[in-house]
User: Fold this.
Amino acid sequence: MESIVLPLQQYGVLLVFVIVFVEQVGVPIPALPVLMVAGGVAAGGGLSVLAVLVAAMAGCLAGDFIWYAAGHWRGHRILRLLCRVSMSPDTCVRRTEDFFGRWGIGALVIAKFVPGLSTIAPPLAGAMRVGVGTFLVFNGIGAAIWVATGIVAGWLLHAQIEQLLDWLGRTGSYAALVIGAALLAWFAWKWWERYRFLAALRSARINVEELYALIAGDHRPIVLDVRTPSARLADARMIPGSRFVDLTAPDRHLADVPPHHDIIVYCS
Assistant:
């Protein structure tokens, strides 16, 4: 077990900072288990709880502020970039926009606990021109709750974490092989889901020139804007003549749409 604990005691605080920061900038590395392990080691006296808390908060806020600044500078374009590289492009922005529509700026407090939203929420706040001070306060509250949850959970489960570290110390490379294989399997599954979704999206898509030709023709299509209110606030541009449709109550907006007409739908 000492082969695992000693490196954690020496580099644990730095490791916490690096992993939390890397996760917040978008790399799909689970930081919460690392916080739990750090909390468990701290319970045994191997690490300072305060040092772990400060390191995790610093990594979290640094990563989030980079995305906030990018969203403030590049607007909604940075969200489209995130969707292109996201493992779940079908929900990567809309779920966050829905959260902002429902909770307002308070969504920053909740986002850390919802998979996939932690990276999207800061740039969306920047794109919506949330003030720097307001962002730091609400994002800081969310980060503090998230970090404290991981550390406290590790502290309470320190006996089980000690057993896990002992097992890792005894199995060595075999444990690393099992963990690596599990991570590779997860990445492969998410990539396959992404590939299938994007293939389906491409088969039902038209480009700007094709849409312009339809609008200029004799049979003008009906264009539906299904973006969330927060997305429209972040990017006020719209296709001329399009109708806004709230997907939380679609019947109210679609009641007078002819079912046999050409219909074009666009989102974020």
The first strand starts at residue 222 and ends at 225. Residues 173-203 form the longest helix (31 residues).
